[in-house]
Design brief:
This is DUF1523 domain-containing protein. This protein is of the alpha+beta class. The chain has 3 helices and 5 strands, in the order αβββαββα.
């Protein structure tokens, strides 16, 4: 049965890693090539788009304008970001300035002959097959494509998360040792007593 436990914890850890990788902020150094607004048909139950505006019908796919930022990496690969407000929803970035970010991105558009490199902060994944785009959070000019960016927020967050999990685990083990283990021991003793009584009755009948 040990392999069932390994599978359970493996699936749980994989889910947690995917959840953190999707929601934690990342940064990509890119060159902005253009900005646009496209009409997208979005399922209201999709987890890869921002929540619909208040008053939007939720009984089927809806069409709404979505801001996009087109970029190119130093290696020539392209990256397309959506630019949506998160509001007070999940993930809790409280982003309300997508219009301002679109204006900043438009001002940072550059050509390959005179590149302006930008550190694009975002969360999410790019899944072309599912038309999923990461959501841009900010755009900051940087000196070049080789600038080293240290993810201090992620480092501090993960350290705090590990500390919280460790502290909760210690308290759960302590609680189990003082409350659950004695209860299980009493149950084992009751079962053993019942077993002895049954055996004595069977022996008496013989």
């Amino acid at each position: 049965m040990r392999w069932i436990s390994w599978i359970f914890w493996g699936v749980l850890l994989a889910f947690l890693a995917a959840l953190l990788h999707y929601n934690l902020p990342k940064r990509e150094i890119v060159r902005i090539t253009g900005v646009e607004i496209k009409l997208e048909r979005i399922d209201p139950n999709s987890v890869f788009w921002a929540a619909p505006d208040t008053g939007t019908p939720l009984n089927g796919p809806v069409e709404r304008d979505v801001r996009f930022i087109d970029t190119v990496r130093a290696d020539g690969g392209v990256m397309v970001f959506r630019n949506e407000d998160t509001g007070g929803g999940w993930p809790p970035y409280f982003k309300f300035d997508s219009a301002n970010l679109q204006a900043e991105a438009r001002n940072l558009v550059s050509s390959s002959s005179d590149p302006q490199w930008v550190a694009m902060r975002y969360y999410g994944w790019r899944l072309p097959l599912l038309s999923v785009y990461p959501n841009a959070l900010s755009a900051k000019p940087v000196a070049g494509p080789d600038v080293r960016l240290i993810p201090w927020f992620n480092i501090v967050f993960l350290l705090l998360l590990v500390a919280v999990i460790w502290a909760v685990g210690v308290r759960l083990r302590r609680w189990s040792r003082h409350h659950v283990s004695p209860w299980l021991d009493r149950g084992d003793r009751r079962v053993a007593t019942w077993g002895d009584a049954i055996r004595r009755r069977r022996a008496a009948r013989k």
